[in-house]
Amino acid sequence: MVRLGNDWDGLIGDEFSKEYYLQLREFLKREYNTRRIYPDMYDIFNALKYTPYGSVRAVIIGQDPYHGAGQAHGLCFSVKKGVTPPPSLVNIFKELHDDLGLPVPSCGELTPWARQGVLLLNTVLTVREGQPASHKNMGWETFTDAVISKLNDKTKPVVFLLWGAHARRKAEIIDNPIHYKLCCAHPSPLSAYNGFFGCRHFSAANELLVNSGQQPIDWHLE
């Protein structure tokens, strides 16, 4: 049984005993035993471990983890300290600078955001090395749908930052009218110029939080 160590255990603990997850677990056992899989198995649920349900104020939804060595550590778009930020993260930092005037960070680890209540959730939580989307449709989507459904039940407004078509598909689950959905293109170099650059989601998220009586996010990383 997976233990997350916070209030998520009582909210989604039942998922780990459902048939779809048991099948996913067997698949992951084989994958981790026979292939190189990211992130490390002990980092798979870091998004939920670092950001308890009760503290979630904003959510950034990614696709699946980075598939290069040493990059993924369980938080979407984030890389470990000492790892060169990938192109999508570089573009996120560019927009952060253009939006709020913050210096472009040299470190790509987004843990400070997670500690403040920004849930950094991929829709698929594992991947084979060098094979993006290789763990798609194996059960992770059902699990992360359950996570988002619980967030939809929150009685305090949450700001969802939905970048790209994949993240926007999750918007269908978010039907509680108290929540906010900020949608734009994905920060990938392939699409960033189609609406991610200039979206100003970081300042918009803070304005929405303040207007709903909550503290803004300190997006500064250094």
How would you describe the overall organization of this protein?
The N and C termini lie far apart (37 Å). The protein has 8 helices and 6 strands. It is globular and about 45 Å long. The protein is α/β, with parallel strands linked by helices. Strand 5 (159-163), helix 7 (165-169) and strand 6 form a beta-alpha-beta unit. The chain is 33% helix and 11% strand.
How many H/I helical runs?
8
Cα-atom Rg, whole angstroms? 17 Å
Count all strands and give the number.
Answer: 6
Order of helices and strands: HHEHEHHEEHEHEH
The overall pLDDT, averaged over residues, is 96
End-to-end C-alpha gap: 37 Å
**Proportion of strand residues:** 5-15%
Weakly predicted, low-confidence segments? none
Shape: globular
**Which strand order spans the largest sheet, edge to edge or round the barrel?**
3-2-5-6
Helicity range of the residues?
Answer: 25-40%
Summary tags:
222 residues, alpha/beta, 4-stranded parallel sheet, 11% strand
In short:
The chain is an alpha/beta fold and 222 residues long.
Topology:
Elements: H1 8-12, H2 19-34, E1 37-38, H3 46-50, E2 58-62, H4 87-100, H5 111-115, E3 118-122, E4 127-128, H6 140-152, E5 159-163, H7 165-169, E6 180-184, H8 201-211
